[in-house]
Records
---
Amino acid sequence: MDGKMRSLIEKLETRHSLSLAEYAYLIDRRTDETAALLAEKACMVRQQIYGRDVYVRGLIEISNICKNDCYYCGIRRSNRSCERYRLSEEEILECCAQGYALGFRTFVLQGGEDAYFSDETVCRLIGQIKEAHPDCAVTLSLGERSRESYQRMFDVGADRYLLRHETADKAHYERLHPPQMSFDNRMRCLRDLREIGYQVGCGFMVGSPYQTVQTLAEDLKFIEEFRPDMCGIGPFVPHKATSFAKEPAGTVELTCYLLSVIRLICPNVLLPSTTALGTIDPQGRERGILVGANVVMPNLSPVSVRKKYELYDNKICTGDESAQCRHCLEQRMESIGYHVVTDRGDVSGWKNSR
Ligand code: 5AD
Ligand code: FES
């Protein structure tokens, strides 16, 4: 590795900040050697804050009905071959009860932008979950909504919100989404969520169509400046019924590299080793943890609907054998010397002001 690369990595480690051009260099000139050095540093930093603990979140996919038509996504509106479903309130509460018994203390309600889940419905749901499981955190991942909506859901107890920014480059954003969707509104949502008081997660796909070293550098700069509490990154994986069916998938190598870089930019960040990473490599989630991630999000949705929440092809954990992802992941983490913990798993340093 050249002297410049070595000094950039040192600077990242000590100042948690690089210029756009420096981020671009870090990505463009990467080698196995730089990847190994970054992973080592990322694991050291994570070790100091979180030890060998891995947090689990129970993911409940509440609806695959979506008004949007993102070009990359398998549940996009125009995909006629997608069999649509929506879980009832009872089914969602039942998933939480089962999840609680399995040791989950965070429930992530994720879904397409489905108008059925009005503020009233979501607020009632949050109230019921909090009443049944007061020691649990509720994370929402329901897309773009108004500030008032985010505020109402926060006021009844929602703790965290995941909304990937998808790309920090406006022109790139416009090549991944139809004209009805706006980069500025996405960013507005993230700012609102932050101001309201949520623990906020952003993120992007690695290897999405038209992504370049430059757009990735912008993603890293955005993460540096926004300082998210959580950051979801996983490889882009093509879905057969989308415009990007023939595009190549992102790689494990670049995803892992960026996980290490993000850990060094935001030492405290809650960083999942994603299902998409586990989909392109059978050991993908273990590899993500070994380079700096500290969260896994097993599926808690009823097995009967899992196959239908197919954002991309060949998604794992959708068959009968995966009914208890929690145990499967626990064994996977133990096999690499990490421990799944039963804990709300708030971001380090978070003071609950409720
Ligand atoms: N490949 C990988 N990730 C995808 N997502 C949507 N479609 C795909 C795909 N084809 C991600 C998006 C979204 C999150 C819920 O899933 O980043 O924000
Ligand atoms: Fe889902 Fe292993 S984590 S089956």
---
Amino acid sequence: MSIPDNVHALKRPRHIAIIMDGNGRWAKRRHLPRMLGHQEGVKAVRKVIKLCGEMRIEALTLFAFSSENWQRPEQEVNYLMTLFLNTLKNEIDKLTKNNVQLRMVGNLEGFNQPLREWIDKSQTLTAKNTGLQLVIAVNYSGQWDIVQAAQKIINQVKAGKLETEILTREIFAEYLSLADLPAVDLLIRTSGEYRISNFLLWQLAYSELYFTDILWPDFDEHELNKALQFYTQRERRFGCISEQLAEINA
Ligand code: FPP
């Protein structure tokens, strides 16, 4: 990756990605069912979307359900599906009013019909919005994303629309889920875990990584500001040395 033209303007991330972890532990600490942790998690989602919109962050990608989450107890998986559906139904007007463009990425074939219909509907309704680009990753994993990109490329080659000899990093990236968005500048993971957990793999190549012990339902404006403060203190060198960045910024 070369240094972006606007390296001097990178004090505010253009694209933030979040692994929202700790809903279950938040509930457990209060002797509540795990499901209530997820409900509170939705409130934190709402706050962060609003704040990112107000701060004119261009893109926000949230990891809501990984390809591996199907392995959870059936009752919890069913609850999460219902929560996604109800949240979409309840929030769509607000998203539209706030000029948010929503898209869901991942293997959507895994979801039931009503949820898929609402995903389509929400994406269509918000498609022309020009504010925050909100991406919800569901039934998503970084490895799935890379394999689906490879599969699309194979199909293109078979159809005679792409020559294998010209496959470059840039061309490969065009087939990934977030191809049209700026690279992820800042990844936030809550709940004190220091893992990427098969979230965006390709897209995190040069991201700054921020880990906090805060559990997702407690993530608020103060916590987001702490993450942004951390980000502003990083020197993003993209493989270069400090002196080269100083020249570019001069
Ligand atoms: C991780 O906490 C959280 C999830 C797997 C679900 C995240 C979903 C939401 C916050 C709802 C978002 C809804 C929309 C529509 C975007 P965990 O259950 O792994 O917590 P634990 O590690 O403490 O058990």
